[in-house]
Design brief:
By secondary structure, the chain is of the alpha/beta class. Helix content is 34%, strand content 23%. It has two domains: 206 residues, 3-Layer(aba) Sandwich (Rossmann fold), CATH 3.40.50.300; 113 residues, Hypothetical Protein Yjia, Chain: A,domain 2 (2-Layer Sandwich), CATH 3.30.1220.10. α7 packs across α8 and α12 runs antiparallel to α13. The protein binds guanosine-5'-triphosphate (GTP). Belongs to the SIMIBI class G3E GTPase family. ZNG1 subfamily.
Length: 356
C-alpha cells in the first residue's frame, strides 16, 4: 500500500536554467556536461533564437533526451510554448514515451531575460508542482564579458539573478582582464561563486544541488541556498564595500555604473506574517522591476518553524514552511539583489511595517 502511495506522488524534478550572453559558451558547457555519466538522466530544453548553428548540431547528435524549442525568444514569444513543453515532458515521461529523466536543464537564448522563465516555474500551478528551481547558471565570456556588461543591461541582470557565475574562455584573456571582470561580477552578485569553466569542462557537483531542497541531503540546506555570509564578507581591497551605521555590511557603490546593490536585512524577534506580506506587497508595488532576486528565512509568529521566501522581481514563490531551523541562528534574514535600491530605505520601511 505504501509503495503505491509513493509511486502516485510525483517527484519534483530539479530544473537548472543556463543563461549567458551570446557566444558565452552555454552550448559548449552543455555538451561537456552531457558527456558525463552522472548527467545521463538529464532532459534538455534549448531555446533558439535567430541563427541556428552549434545548437542544432548538438541536438541532432543527441538522443531523445534532447528536446528542441525553436519558436523564438524565451523572454517574449515562447512563454506559452515553454509551459506547454515542460508539461508535455512530464506527461511523456510518465507514459514512458521518453527516457525517465530526473533533472531538466533549460538553455536560454543569449538575449533572454531569465526572469520570465523563473516566474513560470514559480507560479504556474502545474509546473510548480512538478518542477522545482535548482539554480540559475550564467556563463560569462572572459574576453567579451566586460563589454557585454557595459553595453547590455540584460547581461547585468543575468549575472544578478544567478546562483553560480561561470567564467569561460579564460584561456583567451589576460590575467588582469580576468581579475577586473571577476571583481565586477562579485560586485554585481556577491552571493554567486565565480567558477572557471574552460572549454565546457565543469564538475556537475559544483553546478547542481543549489536549490533549497536537495533530495540527496534530505533536509533543506538553507545556508548553501541563502549564502547570507557572502553579503557580509569583508573585502579588504574592495573600495565599493561599505558598512552602515547599524554595523551591517552591504555592497553599495558600483564603479561601473551597473547600479546593482546587494544587501542582507536582519530582524531579531518574531514577525507577524500579515505585516511582512504588507511590506513585501508595498515594496513590489513601488520597486517590483528592480528587485532582481530576494531570498529569505523568516521567524514567523504564526508558524512553528521558519518560513522561506524566494522572489524574482514582482513574482514570489509561495512561501515554504520548514519544520525546523537549520541551526541556532533564528533571526529573520532576507538577502536582496536590486537594481538601484539601497538597503537603508528598504530596512526602514521593513521595520516600520513590522512595528505597525
Ligand atoms: N578558447 C575557448 N573557446 C571557448 C570556450 N568555451 C567556448 N568556446 C568557444 O566559443 C564559441 C561559442 O561557444 P558556444 O558554446 O556556442 O556559446 P553559446 O553561449 O552557446 O552561444 P549562443 O548559443 O550563440 O549564444 C565556440 O566556438 C566555442 O568553441 C573556452 O573556454 N575557451
Amino acid at each position: 500500500m505504501s509503495d503505491t502511495t509513493a509511486q502516485e506522488i510525483p517527484p519534483q524534478f530539479p530544473v537548472t536554467i543556463l543563461t549567458g550572453f551570446l557566444g558565452a559558451g552555454k552550448t559548449t558547457l552543455l555538451r561537456g556536461l552531457l558527456d558525463k555519466p552522472e548527467m545521463a538522466n538529464t532532459a534538455v530544453v534549448i531555446n533558439e533564437f535567430g541563427e541556428v548553428g552549434l545548437d542544432h548540431m548538438l541536438v541532432e547528435s543527441a538522443d531523445e533526451d534532447m528536446i528542441v524549442m525553436d519558436s523564438g525568444c524565451l523572454c517574449c514569444t515562447i512563454r506559452g510554448d515553454m509551459i506547454e513543453t515542460l508539461r508535455r515532458l512530464i506527461k511523456q515521461r510518465y507514459k514512458g514515451e521518453i527516457p525517465a529523466f530526473d533533472r531538466l536543464m533549460i538553455e536560454t537564448t543569449g538575449l533572454a531575460d531569465p526572469a520570465p522563465i523563473l516566474h513560470t516555474l514559480m507560479t504556474d500551478p502545474v509546473l510548480s508542482n512538478r518542477y522545482r528551481l535548482d539554480g540559475v547558471l550564467v556563463c560569462v565570456d572572459a574576453v567579451n564579458g566586460m563589454g557585454q556588461l557595459d553595453g547590455q543591461p540584460e547581461s547585468v541582470k543575468q549575472v544578478a539573478v544567478a546562483d553560480r557565475i561561470l567564467l569561460t574562455k579564460t584561456d583567451l584573456a589576460d590575467q588582469a582582464s580576468v581579475s577586473a571582470l571577476t571583481t565586477r561580477l562579485r560586485e554585481n552578485n556577491p552571493a554567486a561563486p565565480v567558477l572557471t569553466v574552460l572549454n565546457g569542462e565543469a564538475d556537475p557537483a559544483d553546478l547542481f544541488g543549489l536549490g533549497l531542497f536537495d533530495p540527496e541531503k534530505k533536509v533543506p540546506d538553507v545556508a548553501r541556498w541563502l549564502r547570507e555570509e557572502a553579503f557580509a564578507e569583508d573585502h579588504p581591497h574592495d573600495h565599493d564595500h561599505a558598512h552602515d551605521h547599524h554595523g551591517q555590511h552591504h555592497h553599495d557603490v558600483n564603479r561601473h555604473g551597473d547600479n546593482i546593490k546587494a544587501f542582507c536585512l536582519i530582524h531579531e524577534g518574531e514577525i507577524e506574517w500579515d505585516k511582512f506580506a504588507d511590506w513585501i506587497e508595498s515594496l513590489i508595488a513601488v520597486h517590483g522591476n528592480d528587485l532582481l532576486r530576494i531570498k529569505g528565512i523568516l521567524d514567523v509568529k504564526e508558524a512553528p518553524g521558519p518560513v522561506v521566501i524566494h522572489g524574482v522581481q514582482h513574482v514570489f514563490h509561495p512561501p515554504t514552511a520548514l519544520e525546523a531551523w537549520p541551526d541556532d541562528d533564528h533571526r529573520s534574514r532576507i538577502v536582496m539583489i536590486t537594481r538601484g535600491i539601497s538597503r537603508e530605505p528598504v530596512q526602514e520601511m521593513f521595520e516600520k511595517f513590522l512595528a505597525t
